[in-house]
Every structure is written in structure tokens, then in C-alpha cells.
Amino acid sequence: MNDEQRSLLLELSSRFSPPQGVKLSYGTAGFRADASLLESTVYRVGILAALRSLKTGAVTGLMITASHNQISDNGVKVADPSGGMLTQHWEPFADSIANAPDSSSLVQLIEAFVKKENILLDGKDVAEVLLGRDTRPSGSSLLEAAKQGVASIARATAVDMGVVTTPQLHWMVRAKNKCMEASEPNYYAQLSGSFRCLLELVPQGSLTSSTDDKLVVDGSDGVGGEKLETLKSMLNDTTIEVRNSGNGVLNDGVGADYVQKEKVVPRGFDTADVGLRCASLDGDADRLVYFFLEPNNTRIQLVDGDKIMALFALFIQEQLSVLNKNEDLTVSRSHQARIGVVQTAYANGASTQYLKHLGLEVVFTPTGVKHLHEKAAEFDIGIYFEANGHGTILFSETYISCLEDMNNDLQSTSRGSERHKAASRLLSVGKLINQAVGDALSGLLLVEAILKHFGWSIHRWNELYHDLPSRQLKVKVADRYAVVTANAETVVVKPLGLQEVIDAEIGKYYHFVLSL
């Protein structure tokens, strides 16, 4: 690091003093706290995002959001060049610079890290960071701090993408690094175009009743509701009514997190909505759940992330089954995809049983989207979802290339055949779904397309399986690290003897649950 770069860091960082007595940790959601405590942290994450861009020679992203947290909170996280989350290898560095007590300590940490990572600050390489924020009032000032952080690294440029959903920002980073147009209109064009393709391929006779044509969406009074209003104007064949799209308080009695945990109707819904297909986004639109109201009841029937995953898996398996058959009905093994479904220990056991009954490979990972995403990427087609509604589908580059070749061959030899339609549907799914991160908007459109394909109501979808009885509680203990788990957090190995006690309790009800 030359003197000019060191002086620039010292000068700009002196404007953003860290709050006293506050220690922050970078997790799956990045940094989150009361917005009043985050200015220095966001500034320093701007530095990290610029360094990550230099290290990888690619565009990175920085998103300012606190997702489903209350409106007084905010947060910041980095999008890697793939569009995914920041590599875990860099998380300790994020923690160290966020908690550095002063400018001198900060610069020392940066100097040591760039040396270890072999990042040339004195070279000719340039860095580019795409910045986004949600609708929180604190976002504007924190965005300025992020810009100053990026500017603290010579030859680094911050590009303000405006108010966007978290998945949009991640999509833009991925698109930019794939040499695609990476603007918000491009995002809408890709989603709406691939959605229309799926609707055009809906089998004849797959008709739903007129009451099932309408979808009512709770926008959580956040950025997702605003963006869905824009997107729905491009969807001529779909009726979507958006409520809670910014006139109320963000995440206050609304949103996917509230609906999924409380299992009650969000603000703005009442008995007049009984029987309608409803959905709820979270604050930054990276989670999605569906629900419908029951007559004479304030509670809802929740159709959560587990059932969204089951619907996606069933549809994709159907298309693969058609695609993998030659005209003489023998299976073509050269094009068979390895499909995997990834869950965590939070998944309801009934969903796991259902997916295995379909003949799908089901694997578990520790809790956290980064673990799910990484495991899903090992398959040709990897589907992952958490019950909270966060998830997506990943198609390997190799399999996408294979699909494109097959689709081209089928177009020339058997255009309009069932195999050709199946290949076209899978390619459209790959374009519609956000392969960078979970995306409530793209996920919602895929759910709607699949329901039309099957001719199903939300009630029919909900009957795929029945959840096993469960209850989730938070128990405070003196030392959370005293409990050690294995096998993707499904077995307790310490304290010794605890798993045996759990097994004994489960054994009292196991056969009863299986009979439900």
C-alpha cells in the first residue's frame, strides 16, 4: 500500500467513527443493528466490497437492508461476483474491520489482509461495486457512507442502482459478470418474458376456476410491493392485487416472516378474502409464502417454503420424465439430470417424506442459506428452500448448455412435441427463477405458472401432503455453545446423553405421528 492510498483511507475513515461499546458480527444476513449504529460499519463494508472486486477482477455488490426487521433497523451485506453471498472465507475480515476501534487500527487490518490475499492496491486494476438499498428512511444516509467506503480504495467505482429488492441487486451483479445487461428494466424483461413462455406452454385443458385467477399479495409495506406493482403491469394474463405496498409501516403486522411465524392474516386482509389465493413477501422481497383464509377464523392455512419446494420439484421432475424419453418411449440416459433437493433440520418431516416418495434425492445441510445454496450447486438441478420461504433453483452451466442443445435439436426434428415443450419449459424456468439468491418476485411467478400448468387451486396444492404436528420455541440457556450437533444439526452429540433423552421422548409419539 503506497502513501497516497494510506492517506486516503485515513482521511475518509476518520469521518466515520465506530459507536462505542458495540460489537457486530457478519452472518448470513450480513451486519444488522439499529440504523443509528451502522454508519461506520456500512462505510467499512464499502471498503471490503471494493477489495473483493479487486481480488476477483469482477463486479461485486453492496445491499443496504434489514429484510424483515423492524423499520428502525438496517443492515448491509455484500454480493459476490456470482451474485451469491460473500464467501465465508472473508467473513472474519468483515468482522475485524467493522469492529476496529479507530482509523489507524482499520488501516493496519486492511494492509495485513491485502498482503495475505495478494491484492494489489498499487496496480492498474479497477474495482466496481453496485449499490442498492430498500425503502427504509435510514437507507439514504447509509448509502452515502457506502459510497465513501468504495471511494476509499483507489480506482474503485460505486454505481448506485437505486431503491431495489435484495434479489434484484444480486441478480444485477450476476448479470453484469455474465456480460448481460444489468438494469432493473432488464430484470423485469427477463422475468416477464420467461413467465409468458411458461404460460404459452400450459397444456390444453389445464383450466382453473375464475376465483383462482386472482392472486392477492401482501407487500409487507416494503420495496417488494412497489416493485411488484411495476412487474404486474407487464403480465397481461395474470390478475394480481398488491396490498401493503408502502402506505403503512414496514414489517408491522405484515410480511412473510410475520405470516409464517404467527400464522394469522396480515394487516389489510379480512373475511372478504376467504377462499382467495394469497401470498406474502418479506421486507426486501427475498422470502415468499402463500396462504388462504379459512371461514370464520382469523388464522390461516399456511403454504410455506417446504410446499413451494415440493411444487417446484414435482413440476421439474415431470418435465425431466418427459424429456428423458425418446419417441420409442425408452429412456435416453445421456441427458438425464441429477436433481437434488436440499433442506435443513427446520423442514417439516412430512415434506421430506413426500419428496423421498417422489424418488428425489434429499440432502440436509446446517441452517443458513449459504449452506443450502452451496450444496444445491453440486447438482445439475438443485432445489433448496427453508420453511420461511427463502429459496431458489440452481441449474448448472453444463446442464443449461445440454438443455439448449437438446431444445435446438428438438426444434428442428420434432417441433411442438411433448419433449420439445418439456425442454422449453425447463429453459424458461432457468431464466425465470433467480439463480443468484432466493427471490420472492421470481418465485411467485414460477408458482403461478406451475399452478396454471397443473390446473390447480391453492387448496389442491396444499393437499400434496399434511404437515406433521410441530412447535418451534426459543429456549434461553447459559451457554448456547455447550450444545454441539452433528449430521446437519439433526443429532446432539454434546452434552452426552441429551440425544438419548430426546429419542425417548420422540419414541412416545413416533408411531402415532406416522399414522396421521
From TrEMBL:
Q: Name one Pfam family in it.
A: PGM_PMM_I
Q: Which part of the chain is the Alpha-D-phosphohexomutase alpha/beta/alpha domain? A: 55-89, 124-177
Q: Which InterPro entries match?
A: A-D-PHexomutase_a/b/a-I, A-D-PHexomutase_a/b/a-I/II/III, AMG1_II, AMG1_III, PAGM
| Cofactor(s) required for function per UniProt | Mg(2+)
Query: Where along the chain is the active site annotated?
Result: 67 (phosphoserine intermediate)
Keyword Membrane found:
no
SUPFAM superfamilies recorded for this chain? Phosphoglucomutase, first 3 domains (SSF53738)
Keyword set includes Isomerase: yes
Keywords in alphabetical order, please.
Isomerase, Magnesium, Metal-binding, Phosphoprotein
Query: Start and end of every Phosphoacetylglucosamine mutase AMG1 domain?
Result: 182-289, 304-456
- Domain of life, source organism: Eukaryota
- Please give one Gene Ontology molecular function term for this protein: metal ion binding
Q: What class of enzyme is it?
A: isomerase
- Report the EC number(s), separated by commas if there are several: 5.4.2.3
Catalytic activity line of the entry: N-acetyl-alpha-D-glucosamine 1-phosphate = N-acetyl-D-glucosamine 6-phosphate
Q: What does this protein do?
A: Interconverts GlcNAc-6-P and GlcNAc-1-P.
| Name under which the protein is recorded | Phosphoacetylglucosamine mutase
- Organism encoding this protein: Oldenlandia corymbosa var. corymbosa
